[in-house]
Amino acid sequence: MALDEVVISQAIIERYYKKLIDNLETDVAIVGGGPSGLIAGYFLAKAGKKVALYERKLSIGGGMWGGGMLFNEIVVQKSAIHLLEEFGIRYNHFKEDYYTADSIEAITSLTAGAIRAGLTVFNCISVEDVMMRPEGIMGLVINWSPVEMAGLHVDPLTVRTKFVVDATGHATEVVKVVVKKVPGKLSTPSGAIEGEKSMWADKAENLTLDNTQEIFPGLYVAGMAANATFGGPRMGPIFGGMLLSGDKVAKELIQRL
Ligand code: 48H
C-alpha cells in the first residue's frame, strides 16, 4: 500500500489533539522536565493520578544531560540509589557514599519510565502565567515556546489543575509569577523568593528535601527551584537531592489527592 502524506498528517494531528484535550484538566501539572519534575511525574502517574508535564525546550531533561561541565557523568549518593534502580539505570560505586551514572542513560531512562507510567509530556510549551482564585492556584497559562522566543503577541491557552509543581530549576519561573502578581505571600521567611546561595553540596542536598513543599496554596516547589525559593545553596552535579525531591513531592500530592 502506498503511503499517503495526508494520512500521516491526519494521524499526528488527531493524536496530538487528543493529548491536549485529555489534559485540559489534571490532578497535577508539572512545570519543567528536569530530573525532579520527571521523577514527580513518574510516581504520580504510577499511583494512577492524571498528570501532565510542560517543558519549554524541545528536549526533556533539563540540566542532567551535561553532567558536570559537559563531562556526561552524574554523581548520586547512596540514599538515592534506589531511585536509579526503580528506572533500571545502571550505576557504579566510586567510593564511600558516592556512585556515578551515565547522565544520558539517566535522563533517557527517567523520561521513558515516566511516560510509560502514564505521564503526558508536552515539550516546546512554556508556562507564562498561572490561573488564580482566592483559594489559590487553579491552573497554568501556556503558550508555544517558539511564540515566546519570537516575542510574538499571541494570547495563550489555559489548563486547569488541582496542584502545580514548579520544577523549573534555578529559574523558579512559576514562583516568580506568583510573587509578581501577589507579592509577599509565599511561605518563605520573607514572603518572597529568598534566592539561591553559593555552592555547598552537603548542606544543599539535605535542604533540597526540606525545601520541597507547598509554597503557596496549590503550588509546590521541587528540585533546584525549592532551594532557590527558600534560599538554599546550590550543589553542583550531584543529583540525589533532585531525585529524592521529585519523589517527596509526588508522595505528598498522592496523599492530598
Ligand atoms: C516550561 C520551563 C519553564 C517554563 C523552565 O533545571 P532542571 O534540570 O531542574 P531540576 O530542579 O529538576 O534539576 C536541577 C539540576 O538539573 C541542576 O541544575 C542542578 C542540580 N544544579 C546544581 C548547580 O549547582 O548548578 O530542569 C528545569 C526545566 C528545564 O528543562 C527548563 O527548560 C524548564 O524546566 N523550564 N518549562 N515553562 N516557564 N522554565
TrEMBL record:
Assembly, per entry: Homooctamer; tetramer of dimers.
Gene Ontology biological process terms from the UniProt entry: thiamine biosynthetic process; thiamine diphosphate biosynthetic process; thiazole biosynthetic process
Binding-site residues, glycine: R234
Keywords in alphabetical order: Iron, Metal-binding, NAD, Thiamine biosynthesis, Transferase
Pfam families xrefs: Thi4 (PF01946)
Gene: thi4
MF term (GO), any: iron ion binding
HAMAP family: Thi4
Pathway it works in: Cofactor biosynthesis; thiamine diphosphate biosynthesis
Protein name according to UniProt: Thiamine thiazole synthase
Family indicated by similarity: Belongs to the THI4 family.
Residues holding Fe cation: D155, H170
Presence of keyword Metal-binding: yes
Species for this entry: uncultured Desulfobacterium sp
E.C. designation(s): 2.4.2.59
Function summary: Involved in the biosynthesis of the thiazole moiety of thiamine. Catalyzes the conversion of NAD and glycine to adenosine diphosphate 5-(2-hydroxyethyl)-4-methylthiazole-2-carboxylate (ADT), an adenylated thiazole intermediate, using free sulfide as a source of sulfur.
InterPro entries named among the record's database cross-references: FAD/NAD-bd_sf, Thi4_fam, Thi4_prok
Cofactor: Fe(2+)
Lineage summary: Bacteria, Pseudomonadati, Thermodesulfobacteriota, Desulfobacteria, Desulfobacterales
Binding residues annotated for NAD(+), in chain numbering: S36, E55, R56, G63, V127, H153, V154, D155, M224
Catalytic activity: hydrogen sulfide + glycine + NAD(+) = ADP-5-ethyl-4-methylthiazole-2-carboxylate + nicotinamide + 3 H2O + H(+)
